[in-house]
Amino acid sequence: MELFTALIVIGGMGLVFGGLLAVAAKHFAVEEDARVETICDLLPGANCGACGFPGCISFAENVVGLKADASGCIPGGKDICDSICKVMGIDSVGSEVKKVAEISCLGSRDVAPDKFEYHGVRDCNAALAFSGGFKACKYGCLGLGTCAESCPFDALHMGDNGLPIVDRERCTACGICVKACPRDLIRIADADRTCKYVPCNSKDKGKVVREVCEVGCTGCKACVKACPQDAIVVEDSLAVIDSSKCDNCGECVDACRRSIIKDAAKVHHA
Amino acid sequence: MELNLAAIIFVAILANNIVLNQFLGVCPYLGVSKRIETSLGMGMAVVFVMTLATIVSWVIFNFILIPLDLVYLRTIAFILVIASLVQLVEIVLKKNNPTLFKALGIYLPLITTNCAILGVALLNIQMGHNIIQTVVYAIAAAIGFTMALVIMAGIRERLELVNMSGLLQGAAVTLVTAGILSLSFMGFAGIMTL
After folding, report:
1. Partner-chain residue, chosen from A10, A24, A121, that has the shortest CB–CB distance to B76
2. What pLDDT, on a 0 to 100 scale, did the predictor assign at position A93?
3. A42, A60, B91, B127: which has the fewest C-beta neighbours closer than 10 Å?
4. What is the value of pTM for the model shown?
């Protein structure tokens, strides 16, 4: 008899709770926009946050809620933007130009020496907090790979010379490494632009640059004089090439006394 | 009566903290204690669910199991109650209070089969509390859980910045920390018992 009471009580409780849950699931059902899931499936799913929202699902919700632009997914690029537009039933937007990360420092370990030995946490931010960084150059790449670690697409690796290498195929120009680099050495640039650029970020005077780095821009202005297009200006002892004026003639490359002017978006790239 | 309630609160939060002294709910204690923010969210969800679950289990125990002489079925009955209750809460919250659901929603499934909830419901019966004592005990135990979680999260946030050997990193140092924290709370153990 006791066996039956036990069975009935527990079974009954199970039935009651099950029924209650079933009723609740029906009664309190929340209608979700099916487009959110469709769009989320289209997205790369790296949850990189380059769109400004926490994760792909959140971006999808905001696109459906018309709070985000369909072209907001930077890693997705043109293709995914088109697919999202199709789901949303709107005209296609967004640019087609492929972009990649570009690093503006050539100061590898052998050409840009350290001012002291650093044995702390292997992180650029931590190293920078200690006496302004161990590198003699105040502007150069510390080479501890904070950018490479931040990359959600595994597109940045640290080379043997202590400088990061960008994997052009994998890089989606999401811009996370740009934010990760405490010395602001990374920028997003058009992948296929044909012009020259100066991979240096040193705003030190020429004399200081010569002391701390073999491949730093001293701001000598030899390139400025050589450039037939007047595309180069020197600001804060650092030559900057205007990519809209540069016709890639190469005069500056020959003129540069330290041979540091390179083809844009090719240096540090694999 | 008031003294009794105060004693319940003191014992449930400090002297017999469910995580640090009774080792219940160690899974979320180690799993959700990486950031203070998430541990607070989890803690709030536990306060909410633990209070509800303990009250409902108390009612079921006193009005169904005792009259029918089925006290030995309490564990299985409570599991049933808690699992359904959490699911129900999740469904209702999602519909009626999306803001609260966003804050607590991700933690609710974690709580469904949490031994801390079941443990408090069972301990509460074992201690023979009445309904007022039950409510106070459940809330206090949940606050104790939240406190343990937040302390742990605070320590772990600082530990992340420490340069330590690879041997200790991750789970190892977390468990060592949990042990030391638990030891330090043992100091409260002799002060008062229920």
Report:
1. A10
2. 64
3. B127
4. 0.56
